[in-house]
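Researcher: I've been going back and forth with a colleague about how Amino acid ABC transporter substrate-binding protein might be arranged in three dimensions. Neither of us has a model we trust, so I'd like an independent prediction. The organism is Bordetella genomosp. 2, in case that matters for your notes. Sequence below.
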Amino acid sequence: MKKLTAAFLVCATSLLAACGQSDDPAPQAGAAAAQKIVVGLDDNFPPMGFRDENNQLVGFDIDMAREAARRMDIQVEFKPIDWSAKEAELNGKRVDVLWNGLTITEERKQNIAFTAPYMANHQIILVAHGSPVQAKADLAGKVVGAQDGSSAVDAIKKDAPVAASLKEIKLFGDNVTALMDLSAGRLDAVVVDEVVGRYLANKREGQYRVLDENFGTEDYGVGVRKDDTELLARLDQTLAAMKKDGSAARIAQQWFGADIIK
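Model: Here is an independent structure prediction for Amino acid ABC transporter substrate-binding protein. You can compare it with whatever you and your colleague have in mind.
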C-alpha cells in the first residue's frame, strides 16, 4: 500500500508540474544556456576574421572565439554579416555576439554590452608609399577612405579641424576595397584599425606607408545583447582565464608576432 501511495504521489506531482508549466511557461534560456553561439563578423577584415585561399574563415578573433567556446563547452558558428548593420543583427537575435575587432565606444554602449577590453588599437593613416602626405595637416583638400560603420569614421569626425578640411570621406564596404582604391590613386589616404592596416601593409610591402600621426587609441571588446548578462559574465571569465594562462598571448604571437593582448 505504501508503494502504491508513493507512486501515486510521484505521478500527481508530475501532473501538477506539467499543468503549472502550461499555465505559466518558464522563461526561455538565453544564449549562455544554449549549446551554440553564433558569432557575427565581417569576413573581409584580416587578420581578425577573413577567408583564406581555401575560402575557410581564419583570423585572430576566429581563433580567440573558438578557444573561448571550447572552454565554455559550447559550439560556435561564424556568420558573416553587413558590418554597418552589426548592432541590428545582434539585437535582432540573428547573431549572439559581435567578435571581430569591435571597438568599444560610448555610443555603442547605448545599444549593446561589452566584455572587458582584450586588445588596444589605434586608428592609423595609410597613404601610398610615394605620397607627399606626411601628417594629418596634409590631408586638407584630400579624399580619405574608411570602412562604413567602422570606428575609423567616428575617429575622423572627432578630429573636427581635420574632418572639416577634407574634400571627402569616402565610405567602403570593407578595408580591402578601400586600399585597392588607394593603390589605384582614387584615394589620398585610408584610415583603418592599426592591426588591420599594418597586417595588409606588410602583405603588400612597398605599396603603403603608415603616418606617424593617428586618430587616437581605442579598445576592442566582444559585443553582446544587454539582456544576455549570463553570457557576458561567462565570456569575461573565459577571456580573463585565457589571458592569465597565456593562451591569448600565444594566439596573438601566431598572428602578430607579438603579445598585444591587453
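Researcher: What would you highlight for our discussion?
Model: I'd start with this: Confidence is low (pLDDT under 50) at residues 1-32. After that, consider the following. The two ends are 67 Å apart (CA to CA).
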